[in-house]
Write a structure and sequence with these properties.
This protein is an alpha+beta fold and about 750 residues long. It has 6 domains: about 110 residues, PAS domain (Beta-Lactamase); about 110 residues, Beta-Lactamase, CATH 3.30.450.20; about 110 residues, Beta-Lactamase (2-Layer Sandwich), CATH 3.30.450; about 80 residues, Orthogonal Bundle (Helix Hairpins), CATH 1.10.287; about 150 residues, Histidine kinase-like ATPase, C-terminal domain (Heat Shock Protein 90, 2-Layer Sandwich); about 120 residues, 3-Layer(aba) Sandwich (Rossmann fold). It is built from 23 helices and 27 strands. The strands form 6 sheets. Strands 2-1-5-4-3 form a 5-stranded antiparallel β-sheet, sandwiched between helices. Strands 7-6-10-9-8 form a 5-stranded antiparallel β-sheet. A 5-stranded antiparallel β-sheet has the order 12-11-15-14-13. Strand 3 and strand 4 form a beta hairpin. Helix 14 crosses helix 18, helix 15 runs parallel beside helix 16 and helix 20 packs parallel to helix 21. The protein is elongated, with a radius of gyration of 49 Å.
């Protein structure tokens, strides 16, 4: 392989690393750049004279992108000998990435052909043709005359030289004698037409050289007429086309060589011709030729000969201006741009073909739409993740703030109780304050748990048919303390007829209470809040309107997002985690409804509209919202109650509350102790924590159920876990009830009210 590399007819080198250090060079490469010590040197150091000619940038681009580069007839100025002036060479070259076993780019292979001699030959050919044109103008082509029978009467030196005869030999010979047999019939027919109608003609045919070889030529023939207009012969200018055919053959071979190259490329290739208006402004371009990959990269078929405006009428102005500049200036350009009308992105290299008068541009391009979409998707994902992370951080900070807020007055209240002695009024005020603050903390935690249950698909609705008006009344009752504390005026507008819905009344009351609380928090003191409901198109429509701080237009679509807060300053002043409205939307959607926010802008108030499906004409169950029997009037006295919790303070406080309510209690702090106490105490009710050392709550409950004398005891799970799956697990373990910490005193009292009193 090394011999092949070094003896290859093309120049070749291997460049290593991002600095493009020469690793291998062959003899042809050294001939191109001059015999230099290249191996081990970075290309910029080894070939300093090509700085600014674009080659270093091309190498960097291929190394970064992994996309090969193909260039043809590229001019390069080289100092081929020390101290010598720069010399221009022309090269066809290819830069290809080299990869290791893992596919990483480790270097580049540069190879190509020095086309300088061919370019010089083409230039000489061009100059020769210019000279030939002058000679033709001076009758330097073959010129002959014949008589009416087609015999030569005059031949010039050029014609004689072309066929190898002397002038004396040709005079008197027939034109047909020097015409190739295959061309005689067509020639005779053309001459007959000339004699009959006098119309000149041009014919391409082969002549017979004196040595028997064929001479291709083009003849322009006209009739000679006498004074009377009679046909007397013909005159012809004969152009020897052998050189032209050789050039055409060489051109075809060259075109075939490059055609093979272009057709084998992964990139699209096309030659276009720019079309300008009278002011030299590019207005369109025509596709002249393209390779097989053109259609795959552009999606355009049958483009040859058509203009781009025919194929893509709405193509962006950028493409005309860019290609027009290349055509006018001859400056090549490499760029990436979107063709919006085509729905694609392209990486394009464009260069002019021909001289200053040429308006043809060659395009080498790749469809990079997929890459651009991936990049955009990654940018969006990064932005979304950044936004989510920011909101999560804000939420955690707010959560800490919101949990500290009620703890501060609770701690202060404990100090007041400690210092107040027997001052019943002070103790009562502190107790009321503590109840409010604990209720606030419970509300925060409940909202968090509800969001977690919904997100995990664990929240189940307990639907029933109910009159929505009673649900709204419950929500108003829940929100009244916050509304009254801010001195807001609440107006409630409800229809006289029932609004029957099939819903989880607790959750819908929670939705409306959250909206009312939101209105109360975001409305300056003394504001107006309105709660209204009506039936519309088979839906129950609930609206909560306020004249508060309003919502900016750009926040209307995100106000229901998790942890989203419209006004951070107001939110911190009023409290909140940024989850209330998200919970509202999720609960409403679980009921098959919708919710939307409306606002004229900051300072213009807000309106929230909830739409829920009506249940039809059936009457509401009426069970919801009925006055409850006074708890105190049905509160049992003297129950034996076992309290089991490894949290000593929690167990002690619950025991104190129960004893204050007239019950006898026994307190233990683990499952094993609970079983021993239960056998001796025989409780009628047992409150069991779930997460305890030794035996957990589930295991303790099962053991108690199998203990004689405890089969009918009421077992209550008292735990921080409140998902539906937790409740089912409690039921399976033998629990009769499941309360979530911290349990409301009223909930405990209601539960105990259903237990038979202790025997006396």
């Amino acid at each position: 392989m090394a011999d092949i590399f070094h003896q290859a007819p093309a120049f070749m080198c291997v460049l290593n690393g991002p600095e493009h250090r020469f690793e291998l060079v062959n003899e042809r490469y050294l001939q191109l750049v001059g015999n230099r010590d290249l191996v081990g040197q970075p290309v910029r150091q080894a070939l300093p004279e090509i700085e600014g000619q674009g080659f270093f940038e091309l190498l960097d681009g291929v190394y970064r992108s992994g996309e090969p580069y193909f260039g043809s007839d590229m001019p390069v100025m080289l100092q081929r000998h020390p101290g010598a002036p720069l010399e221009q060479r022309f090269v066809d070259l290819v830069y290809m990435p080299l990869r290791d076993a893992d596919g990483r780019i480790t270097g580049l292979l540069a190879h190509g052909v020095d086309q300088t001699e061919r370019k010089l030959n083409e230039q000489r050919l061009f100059e020769s043709r210019e000279h030939f044109a002058k000679l033709v103008g001076q009758a330097a082509t073959g010129v002959v005359e014949t008589d009416a029978q087609g015999r030569f009467t005059l031949v010039n030196r050029k014609y004689c030289d072309m066929l190898g005869y002397t002038e004396q030999e040709l005079i008197g010979m027939s034109v047909m004698e020097v015409t190739a047999p295959a061309a005689r019939a067509a020639s005779a027919a053309a001459v007959e037409g000339l004699a009959a109608r006098g119309r000149g003609f041009v014919i391409d045919k082969h002549y017979l050289h004196k040595d028997g070889s064929l001479v291709p030529a083009t003849s322009s023939v006209n009739a000679l007429h006498g004074p009377a207009g009679d046909y007397q012969g013909m005159v012809a200018i004969v152009l020897d086309t052998r050189e032209r055919q050789r050039t055409a053959q060489a051109l075809r071979a060259s075109e075939e060589r490059y055609r093979t190259l272009f057709e084998s490329m992964d990139q699209g290739f096309a030659v276009i011709e720019l079309l300008f208006d009278a002011q030299d402004v590019p207005v369109d371009y025509r596709f002249l030729e393209m390779n097989a990959m053109f259609a795959r990269h552009t999606g355009l078929t049958g483009a040859t000969g058509k203009t781009v405006r025919e194929l893509v009428p709405e193509l962006d102005r950028f493409w005309f201006d860019t290609y027009g500049k290349v055509a006018l200036t001859g400056e090549a350009v490499r760029f990436e741009n979107e063709a919006a009308a085509m729905g694609r992105w392209f990486d394009v290299y464009a260069t002019r073909i021909g001289g200053a008068d040429s308006r043809k541009v060659a395009l080498l391009f790749t469809d990079i739409t997929a890459r651009k979409r991936n990049e955009e998707q990654l940018r969006r994902l990064a932005a979304d993740l950044s936004d989510a992370d920011r909101r999560k951080t804000e939420f955690l900070a707010t959560l800490a703030h919101e949990l500290r807020n009620p703890l501060a007055p609770i701690r202060s209240g404990l100090g007041v109780i400690r210092l107040s002695g027997d001052n019943a009024t002070a103790v009562r005020k502190v107790r009321e304050m503590m109840e409010r603050q604990v209720g606030h903390m419970v509300h925060l935690i409940d909202d968090l748990l509800d969001v977690a249950r919904i997100s995990g698909g664990k929240l189940e609705l307990k639907r029933e048919r109910a009159d929505l008006k009673r649900v709204l009344a419950s929500a108003v009752e829940t929100s009244a303390p916050l509304i009254e504390a801010a001195r807001h005026r609440l107006r409630v507008a409800l229809p006289e007829t029932d609004l029957t819905v099939d819903a989880d009344v607790t959750r819908i009351a929670q939705v409306v209470a959250n909206l009312l609380n939101n209105a109360a928090k975001y409305t300056p003191a003394g504001g107006r809040i309105e709660l209204a409901a009506c039936a519309q198109d088979g839906m129950a429509v609930i609206t909560v309107t306020d004249n508060g701080v309003g919502i900016p237009a750009d926040s209307l679509t995100t106000v229901f997002d998790m942890f989203r807060q419209v006004d951070r300053h107001m939110e911190r002043a009023q409290g909140g985690l940024g989850i209330g409205l998200s919970l509202v939307r999720r609960l409403v959607e679980m009921h098959g409804g919708t919710v939307r926010a409306q606002s004229a802008g900051a300072g213009q108030g807000s309106r929230f509209e909830v739409r829920l499906p009506l249940a039809g004409d059936a009457a509401a169950s009426g069970s919801y919202g009925m006055e409850k029997q006074d708890t105190a009037s049905r509160r049992p006295r003297g129950l034996r109650i076992l309290v089991v919790d490894d949290n000593v303070d929690a167990a002690l406080t619950l025991s104190m509350i129960l004893e204050a309510d007239g019950h006898r209690t026994r307190v233990v702090h683990d499952g094993i102790a609970a079983l021993e106490a239960a056998r001796a105490f025989l409780p009628q009710v047992a409150f069991l924590d779930i997460g305890m050392p030794g035996l957990n709550g589930y295991e303790t409950a099962r053991a108690m159920r199998s203990t004689p004398g405890l089969e009918t005891a009421t077992l209550v799970a008292l735990t921080g876990w409140g998902a539906e799956s937790d409740r089912l697990r409690s039921s399976d373990a033998g629990f009769d009830h499941h309360l979530t910490k911290p349990a409301q005193l009223s909930a405990v009292q209601d539960l105990l009210a259903g237990v038979a009193p202790a025997e006396t």
